[in-house]
Design goal:
Elements (H helix, E strand, L loop, with lengths): L1 H14 L4 H8 L3 H9 L6 H10 L4 H10 L17 H14 L4 E4 L5 E4 L1 H11 L14 H6 L11 H19 L2 H12 L3 H5 L14 E5 L2 E10 L7 H5 L1 E7 L2 H15 L1
Antiparallel strand pairs: 1-2, 1-5, 3-4, 4-5
Helix pairs in contact: 1-5, 2-3, 9-10
């Protein structure tokens, strides 16, 4: 058990590019004690596991894993987003998604599964997919990253697809490095297996960037759209689900796209 914790602790310290002295100073312990913990020669207390995890900015889910590796019960709760216990989180998400109208707003987990959307978001997905009955399926959620990179999904509709795909690859790769989970690593591997992705994903830069943020250019039939997005997280999460949820908001990058979303919203309310 001590050896498993020791290996995980070393991995996190090295991932954060900290020396033993750096981490010891941050956690306010001696370098000698930290060295003994990393060698498995000393067993940490529950409080020590949490102190080191905090100093390393380890996400809640992985903090629970560290605690289990050290022989302690997890301390951070995890609740299903569709459970009655998540009512406060639901209320917060309702407020955020309603405020985003008439533009699309999506609630995603940390692996880009679509968990919820506002009215404009459903209309947007229905337009892109041609599925007029689309609703979010919590049992089989759509993976937004895969939908954008798969050749038989949304890829043909995106004019600057390589730039968009490169953004997602970099983001998922960063997530995989940050959380050390098998599931995120598996998502990255799936994305890289799609045709034409692995080669250009090694590129260091996008081609001649013109805008301060990446704008997604979409065309379907006679309809052309230009959008940019923002990603938001809760600033003060106190459990695993709240820490991992992301809210992606889409905004029009030109007036024609803004008008289209307003027309869609008026059509829904008429």
């Amino acid at each position: 058990m001590k050896e498993d914790f020791a290996a995980r602790l070393r991995w996190w310290r090295e991932r954060r590019a900290l020396s033993q002295l750096d981490l010891a100073n941050e956690a306010e312990i001696s370098q000698r004690h930290l060295s003994f913990l990393e060698l498995g020669r000393a067993a940490p207390s529950r409080e020590m596991v949490l102190r080191l995890a905090d100093a390393l900015a380890v996400p809640f889910r992985e903090q629970n894993t560290l605690l289990l590796a050290a022989g302690f019960a997890p301390v951070w709760r995890e609740q299903r987003l569709d459970s009655p216990e998540a009512s406060a989180l639901h209320h917060a998400l309702d407020l955020i998604l309603a405020q985003q109208e008439p533009y699309p707003g999506f609630v995603l987990d940390r692996r880009w599964h679509l968990l919820r959307t506002n009215r404009a978001g459903r209309q947007f997905v229905r337009f892109l997919t041609g599925d007029s009955t689309f609703e979010v399926d919590s049992q089989r959620p759509v993976n937004l990253a895969e939908a954008l990179l798969a050749p038989d999904a949304l890829r043909p509709l995106i004019g600057n697809w390589q730039d968009v795909a490169l953004y997602f690859i970099r983001t998922v790769r960063g997530d995989a490095l940050a959380d050390r989970s098998d599931a995120t690593a598996a998502l990255l591997a799936r994305l890289l297996r799609y045709p034409d992705v692995a080669g250009f994903a090694r590129s260091a830069f996008m081609e001649q960037p013109q805008d301060p943020v990446l704008t997604m250019a979409i065309r379907k039939g006679d309809v052309a759209m230009r959008l940019f997005t923002t990603l938001a997280v809760f600033g003060t999460p106190l459990e695993v689900t709240a820490e991992e949820v992301r809210i992606e908001s889409f905004f029009p990058a030109d007036e024609a796209t803004a008008v289209l979303f307003r027309v869609w919203a008026e059509g829904v309310h008429s």
